[in-house]
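Readers of this paper often ask what the protein records in our data store actually look like. Such a record has a labelled line for the sequence and another for the backbone structure tokens. Nothing more is needed to write down the fold, since each code stands for a local backbone conformation. The record that follows is passed on verbatim for readers who wish to inspect the format.
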Amino acid sequence: MTLQQLKYMIIVAERGSITEAAKELYISQPSLSGAVKEVEKESGITIFSRCRAGVALTKEGMEFLGYARQVVQQMELLESKYIDKKPAKQRFCVSTQHYTFTTNAFVELIQRFGQERFEFILNETQTHQIVEDVRNRFSDLGILYLYNSNENVLRKLFEEYNLNFFELFTAMPHIFIGKDHPLAKCASVSLDDLKPYPRLSFVQGTYESSNFSEELFSNEPVEKSIKVSDRAAIVNLMIGLDGYTISSGIFPKYLQGDSIVSIPLEEDEVMHIGYILNKDKELSELGEIYVEALKQYQI
């Protein structure tokens, strides 16, 4: 198989459609379909499953695409350095749960890196997608947390996907609420105290369960629940609807001034916040810089 064919496979996977990929690549649909079939025949696996809506990666295809991306990226680095005579364009991607400190650390990474040519990606996404992104080598590392209720399931998934988990720091559970919330002046709160107010949480899609939730105690029944996919939305709902979310308590004030406050939750639980990495990979130089930037947010 050729480098060009690997690039074709990546575009098809990203577009989810051979028709749309062919338009982007300025080649005919039959030519692209033929290239896909040729790669599948040569590799001995089915990379894409076909349906009316387009194509989707199979389990084997996900693994194949991870390696294809690595090959294409390394070739681009070679071409940049030895043919274009330009400094190598560095790529670094992080998939993460919705934490402000992961964004802050990302800013610090870019400021410290300082080179002219780079492609940095910060993907705030669902928990299972983080695991998939690292497994498929789309992301260099993924940021998430473990605690008593999800640890067995997630560690089993890490083992199945050939991933290691490295703890960065621990945090006790806190709630985030608006500064004018009725509980805002409390030194600490209990789950019972929170019952009258809407619980805010992030959507996990197909994997909507306590094992993949970004919020602790998500299996506790509540009368009012609001799920969102965007971190900015959850902040607005805290302020506008007296909603709350349960997390690590790490929330730099400069992001929202004094609009959001963090209050300890009276529950005996510990969040083990860390990163996942493929077992056959080590942290790159950029990864080491990013991890060091993350560690400073321990409270």
